[in-house]
Fold these 3 entries.
Entry 1:
Amino acid sequence: MMRLLIGVLLLALAFAAGHQVHAKEPTLTISFGVVDKVYSAAELLARKDAADVTIEHDIAYKKRMTYRAVPLLDLLGDIDNAPFDTLEARATDGFVSQIPISLARKAREGGAIPWVAIDTAKNPWPNLPGRSYSPGPFFLVWQHAEKSGVGPEQWPYALAQLSGVASPLQRWPQMAVAASLPADAAERRGAESYIKHCLSCHRLNGAGEGDMGPDLDKPMDATEYMTPVGLRRLIRDPASVRTWPTQVMQGFDTSVLPDSELEDLIAYLTYIARK
């Protein structure tokens, strides 16, 4: 009797372990319509539009890379009649990028072409430089990123979900500048820079979804405890100001964030602090 009970217990444990492994299979959820679509890596790789895609200047590996990928526009479907203007790309590590749908739409006008790359068991991706992990299982990559001015924060990896949402300024009005400010005000331009370069990791007065870095306005705005010189240096070269073993933030050089845009960004943060 005891042997029978032990056998039944072992069988149950084996079933549970197998079920757990299956449950942990990575999936990508596309929330861009009435019904969410959930894809496994195998399902994406089996699509007829899957192709080998070469990225000349890969933002993660800092070199030329080739991936098996599917076109982002095909996964999303009808982007022209979508009731939202932003694609929220949520990663498993707390990174949440807010990508204008207009940026993806430029692919049809000769601009950068977005693809969802899929890591494969047959040819697994190597670890990222200096890291113990790869950008898998899913990675949003761009062919000819320079044609549309795609920023580094618009290449989210470790993807878990892509969702159609309203723009950040609509969802979080505390981020918006006053309507009375001129259309070309530095603060207004700085808000757009913040959304593009910072919001993926840093909330602002509670606004945003990213959790990789601290809120830059709560409980105290960054401009209130850092000098302008120190803040500029932190943005350009974070490790020269603060460094720790798990640090992930990389600097924004002038090719990504020109000096004029950096000044706009600081003007915006200063404006938010006084708001």
Entry 2:
Amino acid sequence: MKRVILVLLVIFLMAIPACITGGIPINADNFEDGFVAVDRGDYKTAYKLWLPYAEQGDDEAQFNLGLISHQGLGVPQDFKDAIKWYRLSAEQGNSSAQNNLGEMYNRGQGVPQDYTEGVKWQRLSAEQGDNKAQLNLGLDYAKGQGVPQNYEEAIRLFRLSAEQGNIGAKTNLGWMHDYGYGVPQDRKEAIRLYRHSAELGNIYAQYNLGIIYDNGEGVPQDYTLAHMWWTLSGSQGLEDAVENRRLLEKEMTDSQIQKANELARNWKPTKKK
């Protein structure tokens, strides 16, 4: 069984300061009301409250409208509307909008799929230090998607992202060390990175650790720990982990399975520092 490399798009509602940007006469109280609406799950009202700000050119409001339409939060999912607002925000230099716009081009959501255009926007975001864009651009280089494949550049970008605490980037760094892509193969370092991300709850790092313990690669073979990590990964929705656990149980004793289930029940993620 092969380890998996993480594909991740992280999008979120930004904690936008209630202030006037670009000289636009905006009522900050009304702007904050949008966040009050979000807190109670009323994204439709938040969209209406932020629309005037977005129409006046506020890049943060534009980003938030793009996100609401992109994810279909309280409104019908509308990729074309998301593209419209992300682009307006991205053209003003909003790094989160640039990252998400790039990912929509990569996925062909609301626009024809265009990896080159996706890389363009994610590079602009990554150059501003956005750790999610650094992760996504690193994946583009690792896959040769929209750019010539370049594992060394992928490693560089994953490291920049990981240094900012992005656990997806740490998982990918583990994968690169595991297989020796862009760096000398170093299973010990791969396991260290996987474990750190897995302890924080990363679904893919947990899956990969399960494979390592199942095969006894760099660690003593331990079906109980493999089962535990696959249980944790599978509980977050990774179907391959559920299937691997099912197959593994055929090789385990009842007491081993019981112990693994107990470990999984008692496991708690490490708090991110």
Entry 3:
Amino acid sequence: MELTDGHHHNAVGLVVWFNWSGLFYIWQKAVKPPGSLHGHHAHGVSLFHIRHPGAGGGWCCVIVRSEICDDDTIPSAYLHRSYDEMPLIEKKALELCKGSILDIGAGAGIHASWLSEHNFTVEAIDISPMAVQYMQSKGLNASACKFEDYESKKHDTLLMLMNGIGIAGELSNLKSILLKAKELLLPQGQIICDSTDIKYLYEDDEGGLWIDLNAEYYGNFKFQMKFEEHETEWFDWLYVDFENLSKIAEDIGLEANKIHEEDNHFLAVLKHK
């Protein structure tokens, strides 16, 4: 893999770096209703239903592009993984849920489904109408809604898994996202989120960092998704380190605690001070 500044990184592709975290929600942010991808119907393209027409109808893949990394792919089957197939951070997050839960950027509803099966009251929102339609077909309480526009009710738990906090797009927007989340919390409520400190992407073999301190925050990413001849526009996505997340949370009256961390990927819980 080669970074755009000409330096090579000895890690594997972007998908593996993040244990696939964020890529699912990246697609949810970018996907558009049928008929809107470059004006084509895209044959009803939805990652929740697509199977490749050949080789026994196996699952297809979506290409993920970023500005600093080689292309990676995500098989649509990953969007339907079972609890046993989830990484440890996701399992820990689900076990921390309590009370009334809002699953933000719920996608195919794998987390909402597990919670519902374990007798939690769950509401799921996603900006993709196709995702919502799929979740509703599975019997989930789901609606198409931007997080910033959600005003239905307050909850005990806001669930923002697979780097759901990345909807901020840039570090400068994270405060407004957390303020909105705080508004939706009941007095003893919690925000459960995860992210990845991607600083290590810029490390050289000696452990030095190739980061321009005068440039924008290193966790501000741009992505594009492509399936067959259909592709999205480039869009912003945020990967935030815990220190910045904790500081911004503190500034608005929330306390962040790191619950678990592995390979620069961390799980955090934010509560009222």
